[in-house]
Design goal:
Protein name (chains A, B): ROK family protein
Pfam families (chains A, B): ROK (PF00480)
Strand order of the largest sheet of chain A: 3-2-1-4-7
Distance between the termini of chain A: 19 Å
CATH topology of the largest domain in chain A: Nucleotidyltransferase, domain 5
Number of domains of chain A: 2
Strand content of chain A: 15-25%
Largest interface: A-B, 49 and 48 residues
Mean pLDDT of chain A: 95
Largest sheet of chain A: 5 strands, mixed
Shape of chain A: globular
Number of strands of chain A: 12
CATH architecture of the largest domain in chain A: 2-Layer Sandwich
Structural class of chain A: alpha/beta
Radius of gyration of chain A: 20 Å
Oligomer: homodimer
Number of helices of chain A: 9
Family (chains A, B): Belongs to the ROK (NagC/XylR) family.
Helix content of chain A: 25-40%
CATH class of the largest domain in chain A: Alpha Beta
CATH superfamily of the largest domain in chain A: ATPase, nucleotide binding domain
Chain lengths: ~325, ~325
């Protein structure tokens, strides 16, 4: 029987994933339910309870000593509540208290999903060994998190690193958040597709009108498709450079579906970064793809819980 | 005889100020020389040496146990060198080593000038009691520094908080730093004046064509002058909101000559901040004027030195 496991939850707008995670970041048991995002808050909580019940049915459950939650934001770690934009039934929902009740009083750590993936990349992924890092997900939205001075920086409310909603174009297009010219408004997958369509690009025979379709067209040389990725790269570069200029990071790690476009995104991003990261102390900044994949949210939620309860993470080099 | 004083240096492009600072932030002795900014690096160092010699001539010098330096940036705190943009004779100049030599081997702490004023405002000024704060100077340039989690965040190289050179207008005007649309390129005093002049504003009878003249015209109702301050406020709001969204600050403190325009700047800044600081965890952000005045650089350099040498700052409330 393994002991000192963390029950990890990764709560998003489409699914609620759970796992028992060991001290090496291994997922010992998994569970998953769809998020009933359009239903009442209690129905969403029922789905969380279902995931926890599936984990509790495992023979390993007795080894669980803490719970780590990474949730779609905004979260309020100080209050223990969540208000995910895509889950309208949860507004100030007391998730920490409810999960503690559902697990017989285990200590619960809550962070935003961007902070969770950052914890994972810093523990076992592309940001390992970097004391000052920005980790991002560029997908349907744009999220992120920070490592500063060697430690995760969730901020008082667990939301720090929200790079998707900093404005890099103060007179730009209105973002659903209410501001203008946010990084997400320019660089997310749906915005890459929208911009290409607005400029006259049309999907190929497969009818894929998403950023994946735009990426395929760009690889085939379509200049409108290429330009849409270059614009996304420019906005990401401005945002990453701003972050480095403000807090001195030396690496930016980018995951998510849009990052899956590979050099189509990373090549213009590196070029643009040289234009925006100009001061001497940020010129050495590098940008690399994420490596933790779909489990980053779960592994990172576990890492955040272990960090909060002051138990040192296992050093992957000593395994 | 007072003991445990800090010899503080505030090094800018026009003057080199020095002081012996006591544990309550009081300036016991002062000294000052003009910066021979266009001369050789050794001549600039001679001026620093002159300031230190003036301090050493005081009967209090024997109480000095450390040196704190706040310097125009960029600095490299790890290497102990400075390369101030406005002092071309100093490029990678080993200031920490030279000051240590000149003071008989006292421990020397180096931070950027924005970090120094932040340390001062956090210790004794407008950011006192705030664990997460941005402090700024809006003047000929735009600089800043951060307090995160209750502690000064200089970053590995001592330059963190460089809000003047984050881009808030990615297609905007070219900044001398090489990027486009930097906060400083829009909000600094010279840019407020340039924008007003470009839009047709002309100085009054006193011939003052600086931001001070623009402020006077704005107070008299000149719409072009008002618009130039509003544009500066918009850029500052976008930059401050970006900072809060990235690292979760709850207060921004603004000093410097442009902040001296008072509500002419702060009123549109608060309005614009509501438009850019949209996420729930940054909506409570407040913006206030700095209170430490011209001595902030010296007091902050001393605070940074005391923090580095792990001696607790005196609590102003217990005096």
């Amino acid at each position: 029987m393994q002991t000192d496991l963390v029950a990890a939850l990764d709560i998003g707008g489409t699914k609620i994933a759970g796992a028992l995670v060991d001290r090496d970041g291994g997922l010992v048991v998994r569970a998953q339910r769809p998020t009933p995002a359009r239903e009442s808050g209690e129905r969403v909580m029922d789905a969380v309870g279902g995931v926890l019940a599936d984990l509790a049915a495992s023979p390993y459950w007795g080894g669980a000593t803490a719970v780590g939650i990474g949730s779609a934001g905004p979260v309020d770690a100080a209050a223990g509540t969540v208000s995910p934009v895509n889950v309208p039934g949860w507004r100030g929902f007391p998730l920490v208290e409810r999960v503690a009740d559902a697990t017989g009083g285990l200590p619960v750590t809550l962070v935003g999903d961007g902070v969770a993936i950052t914890a994972a990349e810093h523990w076992l992924g592309a940001a390992r060994g970097h004391d000052n890092a920005l980790c991002m997900v560029v997908s349907t939205g744009v999220g992120g998190g920070l490592v500063l001075g060697g430690a995760l920086h969730p901020g008082p409310s667990g939301n720090a690193g929200h790079i998707g909603h900093i404005s890099v174009d103060l007179d730009g297009d209105l973002c659903p958040c209410g501001a203008r010219g946010c990084v997400e408004r320019i660089a997310s997958g749906p915005n890459i597709a929208r911009r290409a369509l607005d400029a006259g690009w049309r999907p190929g025979p497969d009818g894929d009108a998403t950023a994946v379709g735009v990426a395929a067209a760009a690889r085939a040389g379509d200049p409108v498709a290429v330009a849409s990725f270059e614009r996304a790269a420019q906005a990401l570069a401005a945002g990453i450079a701003a972050t480095a200029t403000l807090v001195e990071i030396d690496i930016a790690v980018i995951g998510g579906g849009v990052a899956g476009a590979g050099e189509l995104l990373f090549a213009p991003l590196r070029t643009a970064l040289r234009r925006y990261a100009t001061l001497s102390f940020v010129q050495h900044l590098t940008v690399v793809p994420a490596v933790m994949g779909n489990d980053a949210g779960l592994v990172g939620a576990a890492a955040a819980a272990l960090a909060t309860t002051a138990r040192p993470l296992a050093d992957p080099l000593s395994r």
